Amino acid sequence: MNEALQLLSSPVGWALYFVCAVLIGMSKTGIQNIGTLAVPLFAFLFGAKYSTGIILILLCIADLVAVIYYRKEFLWGEVKKLLPASLFGLIVGLLLGNYINDKVFKLLIGICIIVGVGIMIWLGKTSQQKQDKLTKNRWYSPVFGFILGFSTMIGNAAGPALSVYMLSKRLNKISFAATSAWFIMLLNFTKIPLQAFVWHNLTWAGLYLNLFAIPFILLGGYIGIKIVKILPEKKFRMLIMTLVVISAILLIVL
């Protein structure tokens, strides 16, 4: 327990950590990508690669809250289209991450987020008819699946690309949140043994630290559910796009 307390040495660090927990809770229950704002903050607090182990357990806890709440709303068909290629992306990210230093690791996280932003901008300039035609291609879901698997393994940074995919499918806000939560949960729980036994960045100290954050994750989950219920569809989509851009900028700056 003492080792867990030593991971954060200042009141500011603890405050940032709890704010990140609230953001993660909100992201899992509806405000997709607000949790991506926590990625650069965690990299700042713990170092880029080690932070992926700290944040992973928080994400898994928040995933459970989200899938329990959205257990009847997700679209298994969309999850099934993404899953095979995303598992391949996980393995590629796992192998690559084992041979790079923390500085390059942070750069890769930033690139993953920027790629998501770039795809979003590109789709925004494409007509709805062309978007619909594009999403029906056989390669569309596997390409996104690989990007999602790789980016979540490298830095829990799949949010932007996942948002782009779900927005391009024109899902309503509830289906968007539910399907995203179930898909990411499957990936995150798959990552636990990989990060524990290959990267060795899951520690008991990190796990104990995560216990302090559970109330803040639940608070964030509650806030996310309330916001989704009152936010109109158009404003919901605009909020998602804005958060993607902000998270990319934060990672570059920090």
TrEMBL record:
Q: Keywords in UniProt for this one?
A: Cell membrane, Membrane, Transmembrane, Transmembrane helix, Transport
Query: What is the membrane topology noted in the UniProt record heading this document?
Result: Multi-pass membrane protein
Q: Which residues form a coiled coil?
A: none
- Keyword Membrane part of the UniProt annotation: yes
Q: Which Pfam families does the UniProt record give?
A: TauE
Keyword Transmembrane helix among record annotations: yes
Subcellular localization(s) per the UniProt record: Cell membrane
Taxonomic superkingdom: Bacteria
Cellular component (GO) terms are: plasma membrane
Q: InterPro entries in the record, alphabetically?
A: TM_pro_TauE-like, TSUP
Major location (coarse): membrane
**Residue stretches spanning the membrane:** 6-25, 37-70, 82-100, 107-124, 144-167, 174-192, 204-224, 236-253
Family listed: Belongs to the 4-toluene sulfonate uptake permease (TSUP) (TC 2.A.102) family.
Q: What is this protein called?
A: Probable membrane transporter protein
